[in-house]
Amino acid sequence: MRMRLLCIGCVASLLFHPAWAAERALAVTIYNDNLALVQDRRDIDVKDGRQRIEFQDVSAQIRPETVSLSAADIGIVEQNFDFDLLTPAKLMEKAVGQEVTIVRVNPATGAETREQAQVLATNGGVVLKIGQRIEVLRDDGLPVRVIFDKVPENLRARPTLSVSIIGSHAGTRRATLSYLTPGLGWKADYVALYNESDGKIDVQGWVTLTNSSGTTYDNAQTLLVAGSPSQVDGVGQNAYRPPVRRQNLQQPGTESGSRERLGDYYLYPLAERTTIANLQTKQVSFLDVHGVAAEHGYEFHNRWLGTAEMPVSAQSIYSFSTSAHAGLGDQLPAGILRFYMKDKRGDPQFIGESRIDHTPMGSTLSLATGDAFDVKVHAVVEKRTRIATFDWQTDMRYDLTNALPRAVVVKVRQEGLWGDSSIKAESQKSTRRSAEVAEWPVTVPANGKATLTATFETRY
């Protein structure tokens, strides 16, 4: 509906300045799980007795039950959050049953005509009663506007929290308004450039802030918390179960650093105050490390003792440390790490990405970037024999091929060794990664083949 809505006599209402001075300081603590704590410090003018204080520019998604207002010598009576925002459609909707002025302009002469109209309904369109006739306000391209005499009290130009207080005496107070809100979140993103010639990586870490809370936080002191505080009532981590994915943490770290902690969470304060605009994504650097030793290898996971229909690609794996002495030297918030490698022209090219969980310092990460083009493994059951009613013997063969002009090491992992499973024979010594997983590091020559064999006894 193309129409102009003009409010006569309501300019003072729109420009109403709440009872707080220009002095304002914002502090925003943002958690990983779409949650933020906003602490809004303002100077408020308090009268002696009861009055209503309005706080504009709060989050449009504020959780009212979490609101706390503290100031000296005041008592809080009640609080209301007005989230019905002023729009042309809302203004017309609130005018149902009331009279407005319809102004039409003759496109040929420019002459204006004005009529008083009663708004009957706004369901799918505006229905008016003008005199003794009923008319639908049509979107026919003709110049028309609607004049209202005021803005309804429960419509706000911006999200507004109003608090009724009782002041013990008049004067200016420093007040702190704090509340929790969804719509603000952050994540970590990493960019790793791998140098194949010397086996090292350069890693940059970026914090990506996203604000869809419905308001802008100007010049805010911003603190990021790496962790997932428990929330109830279907909010936050208790309502979400992430999908099962490859475990990238090969060895958890045991090192402590100088980074500030809050309980069991790590804090990442932004160095300077920043403005977090509504509907904006902002990136801030927090990690920049060069020349970290890294190892490139391959892994093959066989999920059960069975024959694969055809050879499959091994996974391309990059491993490195977060240690302070031989690694990145920091705790890593959960996020996505994207790998790049330079081509012959010296241009960095994307080769894959992998997700990491919150990682303590001193850990060893082993990240898969994709399937290897030239390294294949074919798992084959050579023979399966029943030993007893529930005992079986399975002879497995793993055929590995390598089309690269250099030798590679493939970590062959046989999974699914449940219960009383055991390895009775093997062509090379294995390492038991867990009760259910055995691993063999198999060297495959350049442009060549290798074979691994193993005999398993299982009960099922």
Main sheet overview:
14 strands, mixed
What integer is the average pLDDT? 85
Gap from first CA to last CA: 70 Å
The SS-based structural class is mainly beta
- State the helicity in percent bands: under 10%
Number of alpha- plus pi-helical segments: 2
Tally of discrete structural domains: 3
Question: Gyration radius, to the nearest Å?
Answer: 33 Å
Overall spatial form: elongated
The proportion of residues in beta strands is over 45%
Can you count the beta strands? 31
Segments where pLDDT lies below 50 for 5+ residues? 1-22, 236-245
Kindly describe this structure.
The protein is mostly beta strands and about 450 residues long. The protein has 3 domains: about 5-85 and about 155-180, no CATH class; about 85-150; about 295-460, no CATH class. The protein is built from 2 helices and 31 strands. Strands 14, 15, 17, 21, 22, 23, 24, 25, 26, 27, 28, 29, 30 and 31 form a 14-stranded mixed sheet that branches. Strands 2, 3, 5, 13, 16, 18, 19 and 20 form an 8-stranded mixed sheet that branches. Strands 1-11-7-8-9-10 form a 6-stranded mixed sheet. The longest helix is centred in the first third of the chain and has 7 residues, at about 90-95. Residues about 1-20 and about 235-245 have low confidence and may be disordered.
